[in-house]
């Protein structure tokens, strides 16, 4: 008759705790190696010395570092010219579309009139002639006053009615 040797329960529990603790230490050491600095002075032999007595099977685990997302580039909107109108005297532009926020950039040349100064008036109108912003620009073109910007806050289909005695340039700009 063979005699069975009973292993005390506390010995089994101790073996399980040691195995789990050793595995946990190996994983922690592997994790700290992956998230630590990438200095060329660290080697795998020094890492094994830190977790002495741990199973070597854990050294086959691959890197677990999550790649960092690259920053999303932010686009700063810039004023972009969508229409340019040039003329000398009175003119009504063709209709065109604008968003709810846009701007008129006007310029003039005082030397284009014999007196050296003249009116520049720009009305913003709807296609049926209804005024949207009468006098959006209303100025005297003269030395020291040859250009400026007027921001508008109503979009849709519009046209410009320009009244002037001499040369002018109007740019319509939107944020893009």
What would your notes on this structure say?
The protein has 2 domains: 9-60; 79-175, Jelly Rolls. The protein is rod-shaped, with a radius of gyration of 39 Å. It has helices spanning 9-35, 44-50; strands at 79-88, 91-92, 96-98, 102-108, 118-125, 131-141, 147-152, 156-164, 167-175. It has 2 helices and 9 strands. By secondary structure, the chain is of the alpha+beta class. β5 (118-125) and β6 (131-141) form a beta hairpin. The longest helix has 27 residues, at 9-35. The strands form 2 sheets. Strands 2, 3, 5, 6 and 8 form a 5-stranded antiparallel β-sheet that branches. Strands 1-9-4-7 form a 4-stranded antiparallel β-sheet, with no helix packed on it. Mean pLDDT is 82; it is low at 36-49. 19% of the residues lie in helices and 37% in strands.
């Amino acid at each position: 008759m063979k005699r069975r040797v009973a292993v005390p329960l506390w010995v089994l529990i101790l073996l399980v705790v040691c195995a789990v603790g050793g595995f946990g230490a190996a994983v922690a050491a592997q994790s700290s190696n992956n998230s630590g600095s990438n200095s060329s002075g660290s080697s795998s032999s020094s890492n094994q010395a830190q977790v002495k007595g741990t199973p070597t099977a854990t050294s086959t685990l691959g890197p677990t570092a999550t790649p960092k997302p690259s920053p999303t580039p932010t686009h700063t909107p810039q004023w972009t010219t969508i229409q340019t109108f040039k003329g000398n005297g009175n003119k009504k532009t063709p209709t065109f579309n604008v968003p709810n926020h846009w701007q008129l950039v006007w310029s003039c040349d005082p030397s284009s009139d014999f007196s050296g100064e003249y009116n520049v008036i720009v009305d913003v109108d709807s296609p049926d002639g209804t005024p949207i912003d009468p006098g959006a620009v209303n100025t005297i073109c003269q030395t020291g006053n040859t250009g400026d910007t007027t921001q508008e806050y109503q979009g849709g289909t519009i046209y410009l009615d320009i009244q002037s005695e001499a040369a002018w340039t109007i740019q319509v700009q939107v944020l893009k």
